[in-house]
Structure prediction request, 361 residues.
Amino acid sequence: MVTSPDNAPSASPVQCLVVDDDPQVRDSLVRVIQEQGLACLATASADEALAYLSAHDGVAVLITDIRMPGTDGVALLSEVRRRHPDTAVIMVSAVADVQIAVECLKMGALDYIAKPMVIGEVQARVAKALEKRELTLQNRYYQQHLETEVRRQRARIEQLFLEGAQTLTHALEAKDAYTRGHSRRVREYAVRTAVMLGYTGDFLDNLGLGAELHDIGKIGTREAILNKPGGLTPEEFRHVAEHTVLGERILAPLAGDRPVVLHIARSHHERVDGDGFPDGLRGDGIPMEARIVCVVDAFDAMTTDRAYRDSLTAVNAFRELERCAGLQFDAAVVQAFTSAFPGPDHLPLHTSHPPMAGDPR
Ligand SMILES: [Fe+2]
Prediction:
């Protein structure tokens, strides 16, 4: 029978279970433990204790006498270790049994209390056992969850970095009336074009992000050259071209597991005829995500005023894309882009344009 000293049912989950065949010892132990604010019950035998543990989760500490009729404390310890390893066990031993108590420690008992028991000592041992058990459980939890937690933190850091990069891109564009909203429009155009080409899921998310950040490397381009009216000298051109490699380098440390984003930063100025930069890639050798951004980036540049020329109408920009399909641009991408926006009169998009149905973000 499971008892409390006055046989009153315990209101809170039982934290401690006392096992002793002597009712006086049993009741006084329960009282002492309850006085330290812990919910405590008792059983008169090892078998009753095992039955109770099997039926009730969460017993933190078991305090058992070593010598009991029937199953003794040592056998109980062994069973509890096997079946309820999260329950800490404290052995109660007569002076003559100290050697057995030491053996019990080797078997996994957390502590032992020698008779005659002193109230303060019992309470201190129980408190220490609870603390040790808590630490053991915490350690196990951290070991089991560390990997997940590290992954979660890494994803969070990556997210914060990418959000920072987006903010930076928008801030740079906002300084210049010619490029204001460029990256957001390129994102819209790119994602809609990819949907038309049949892409779905993560690819669209990363394409959208890469499209928005494609020119982040221009942080390193001298402003006088970026806004220079007229043509560039070969040296100036080389300087501007570096924004591709620099963009990839900026994004690589924290977007390394998003190759789509990095490919866009590096290769959005490659041409299918091999005359692009920085690597002179050709045709299918250029990642599809970069071929998509190349087309829509050119379209947005043509349809917005720049320091060095006025904008084209969307219809004329479409014609220009089609004229250069197979040379500068991937013909299938040009086809998908013009199909995705069958009413070019509504282009270019306004940057306050609400997200389109089917957009992944
Ligand atoms: Fe660019």
